[in-house]
DNA sequence: CCTAGATCGTTATTAACTATAATTATCATC
DNA sequence: GATGATAATTATAGTTAATAACGATCTAGG
C-alpha cells in the first residue's frame, strides 16, 4: 500500500552525463494530457498523503482501514458492523477482518445486543480509546506539517470541492 | 476497484419507521474526527472520481492504469518501460502486465532500439492513437460534468494544492 | 401463530493493485 | 576483458475490493 514517490528526481540526479548518453539525455516524460484532469492530480496527491499516513500509523500498529474503523467506533459507541461498513464505504464482508483485528488487539469489543441478537454493538476498550487519542493526534500533526505551506483559503476551497464531490457520488 | 457509494442514502431511504424501531432510529454515523483531516475528504472524493473514471473507461476496454499508460505512450513516443513506470509511479514489474495487455490489444508496439538492445521503445499503433482520442475526450467530458457546479477559482485552488502536495512527496 | 421476506454477520472466492527478490540480457567503465 | 549497473522479466506475497451464498435472527402479512 505505501507507494514510492519521487523516483523521477532520483533518476534525474543519478546520471553521470558522459559523452555517450549526452545526446539522448532522457527528456522528462510529459504528462500534458493527463494533467488536464483533476482526477490525475488527485491520485498523485492521495498517494503522497496515503504513504505519509501509513508511515504515521505503522508505529501504532494501525493501517488506514483499522484507524478509520477505530475512530468511528470511538466516536459512535455501540454502532453495528453494517453501520460501520456503510460509513467506511466498504462491503460488509471486508469489514469482518478489520473488526477481527481490532478485537484481537483488544482495542474494541463485539457486544451482543439483547434487542436484536443478529447484530453486535461495537465499543472501544480503554486501550482502544487511548490508542485513538495518540493516533488522531499523530495523524493531524503529520498532516498539518504536510499542509503547512498552504494558506487557510486554499485549504478551505480544496476541502469544499472535495466534500462536494463526495456528496454528489 | 469501482467502489460503491451512496449507501447511506439507500439505507436511510429504506426504513419503514414502525413503532418498534422508531425509538432506536439509526442515527447517522458521525465522522466528526475523521473529517478534520484533509486526507479523509480526499479518499472519499477520489473514490467517487475513480469509480466514475472506471465506468467511463470500461466501454472502451480500458482501466485506469491501461488508460494512463496509453496516454503517456501516445504523448511520449518511443519511451521505455522504465521511464513509463517512473512516470506512473509504479514498480517496473507491475508495468509489464499493463504493457502486455496494451500490446495484445494491438494498441501499442514494443520496438527494439538498436542503440540499446535492453530497452523497448513503446509506440502507439493507429488503433491506439484512435482509442486515445476517444478515451481522453470521454474522460474529460465526464469529469467536466462531475465538476460543473464549481467555479474556476475553486478548481484552480484545488488543483494548486493537489499539485504542490505531489511535488513535495 | 407462522410463514415469507429481509437483515446481520460470516465464509469463501475472485480480481486488481502493489511491493520485493531474483534472473537474464545487455550496456558502461576501468 | 572483467566488474558493476541497467532494462525487462518472472515469481511471489500482501493488501484491498467485489460478489455469491449461508445460518441465525428479526419483521410483516395473512
Question: Mind explaining what this structure looks like?
Answer:
The structure is a homodimer of 169-residue chains. Chain A has 169 residues and is mainly alpha-helical. Chain A has a domain at 62-169: Arc Repressor Mutant, subunit A (Orthogonal Bundle), CATH 1.10.10. Chain A has helices at residues 7-13, 19-22, 38-57, 64-75, 81-88, 92-104, 126-146, 152-168; strands spanning 108-112, 120-124. Chain A has a two-stranded antiparallel sheet. In chain A, α3 crosses α7 (126-146), α4 packs across α6 and α4 (64-75) crosses α7 (126-146). The first copy, chain A, is elongated. At the A-B interface, α1, α3, α4, α5 and α7 of A face α1, α3, α4, α5 and α7 of B. The structure holds a DNA duplex (30 and 30 nucleotides).
Quickly list its features.
Arc Repressor Mutant, subunit A; 60% helix; elongated; 169 residues; mainly alpha; homodimer; DNA-binding
